[in-house]
């Protein structure tokens, strides 16, 4: 009887620990963090607002991939969504990127481009 109680206790503690370990947030560290930071620094030098948004979105995509999120950018955002305090803003920035990419002749103001880049930057910082 005592052995059964001990084994049940160990099983419960194991389940709790595994649940905690799975929920623990993965973060960019070391080489991965430096890689993303370097890409971001280079992106900031881009003057064309359309290219700047495209590159910022690609860097966020790469950061999510480095953390093990798979699929399209949309799928990654759905899976990683709870990690972002500004998820809707990130979705809006990604939709802007898609519009610029898929609708020939689309343009974006400097102000809107800078806002999208700041939103994506905030998202990336949340992954570090």
Report the span from N to C terminus.
Answer: 48 Å
The largest β sheet comes out as: none
User: What class do helices, strands and sheet pairing give?
Assistant: mainly alpha
Strand element count: 0
Helical stretch tally: 6
Element order: H for helix, E for strand: HHHHHH
Please state the CA-atom Rg, rounded to the nearest Å: 20 Å
Question: What global shape is seen?
Answer: elongated
Describe the structure.
- Helix content is 74%, strand content 0%.
- The chain has one domain (27-125).
- It is built from six helices and no strands.
- The longest helix is centred in the first third of the chain and has 22 residues, at 2-23.
- The protein starts with a helix and ends with a helix.
- With 128 residues, the chain is mainly alpha-helical.
- Helix 3 crosses helix 5 (87-102) and helix 5 (87-102) packs across helix 6 (110-125).
Features:
6 helices; 128 residues; single chain
Secondary structure elements and pairings:
Layout (H helix, E strand, L loop, with lengths): L1 H22 L6 H15 L4 H18 L6 H8 L6 H16 L7 H16 L3
Helix pairs in contact: 2-3, 3-5, 3-6, 5-6
Compact description:
The chain is mostly helical and 128 residues long. It contains six helices and no strands.
């Amino acid at each position: 009887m005592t052995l059964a109680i001990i084994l049940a206790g160990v099983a419960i503690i194991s389940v709790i620990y595994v649940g905690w370990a799975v929920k623990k947030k993965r973060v960019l560290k070391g080489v991965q963090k430096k890689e993303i930071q370097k890409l971001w620094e280079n992106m900031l030098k881009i003057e064309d607002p359309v290219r700047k948004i495209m590159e910022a979105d690609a860097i966020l995509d790469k950061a999510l991939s480095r953390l093990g999120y798979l699929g399209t950018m949309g799928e990654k955002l759905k899976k990683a969504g709870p990690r972002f305090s500004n998820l809707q803003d990130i979705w809006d920035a990604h939709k802007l990127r898609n519009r610029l990419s898929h609708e020939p002749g689309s343009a974006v103001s400097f102000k809107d481009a800078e806002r999208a880049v700041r939103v994506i930057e905030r998202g990336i910082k949340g992954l570090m």
